[in-house]
Amino acid sequence: MAARVLRLFPGPPEEVALAGLCLADALHTLGGAGAPFVYASFVGSLDGRIAVSDAISGDSHLPVEITSGNDFRLFLELQAQADCLVTHGGYLRDLAAGRLDDVLQIGTRATDRDLADWRRENGLSAQPAVVIASASLDFPMPESIIRGKQRVLVATGRQAPPDRVDALRARGVPVFVAGGGESVEGAPLVRELGRLGFRSVYLLTGPRMLSTMLRDGALSRLYLTIAHRVVGGEGFHTMATGPRLEGAGRLRLSSLHYDAAEPDGAGQWFARFDPLRPA
């Protein structure tokens, strides 16, 4: 039986199909020339954990008890609408070490074959471009990107190691500056992606990128899955990092759905938020 969820907001409450829930947002149509629509997603627990640290290795990972097939389906729908995915060097290093799964392509699994068709029917390229945000420029290039013939670009800060910039460019990988220091910053990154013609940008990054996007007023939308579990643990990460966001952290709920079945019968909310711009 196809998964169903309960739409709670905006009302009145109504049971709807899970499949197509995020596709209905038509994110690929919301960006304009030079002004891409930038969105991010996270899955977290009731106590705010998006990742926990291994007590021995110190490596961070998504708590398995808050993962679910229904959430992953919506993740894939968000990915399918992007003409550009932004990832980071840490993810590529973890991918090479076998600590994380490769999620940089659409239509490579039985669960998302329909989304490859959806991209084609909606005029998007077979695979989204991949932008790698990195301060150190120390990362391996995944074979899957090469096999998928995806366009690859690298974003870095102005203080990036010049020899590594030169090495990437020598391999034919474009490198552009999107920050005045070592790290990539939200507003410069979005300006450059808009200049390059990208219209829908999905952030597959983490707390640092979300924080800089919010501070710079560069985030268009946030999707948040809240699993009804308390995870606990001594070492953990939450959605934001760095100095307090103050007014830049204001977001308004624009939709809320309730999934009573997953994960593990506890249930979860699928929430969508739009940042509030300064008056």
Automatic annotation (TrEMBL):
Give a yes or no for keyword Oxidoreductase in this entry. Answer: yes
Its annotated pathway reads: Cofactor biosynthesis; riboflavin biosynthesis
Q: Which GO terms describe its molecular function?
A: 5-amino-6-(5-phosphoribosylamino)uracil reductase activity
> Which InterPro entries does the record associate with it?
DHFR-like_dom_sf, RibDG_C, Riboflavin_Biosynth_HTPR
Sorted alphabetically, the keyword list is:
NADP, Oxidoreductase
Taking every annotated instance into account, which residue ranges of this chain make up the domain Bacterial bifunctional deaminase-reductase C-terminal? 36-252
Q: Which terms does the UniProt entry file under GO BP?
A: riboflavin biosynthetic process
Pfam families to which the protein is assigned, alphabetical: RibD_C
**Protein name, as recorded:** Riboflavin biosynthesis pyrimidine reductase
Native organism taxonomy: Bacteria, Pseudomonadati, Pseudomonadota, Alphaproteobacteria, Rhodospirillales
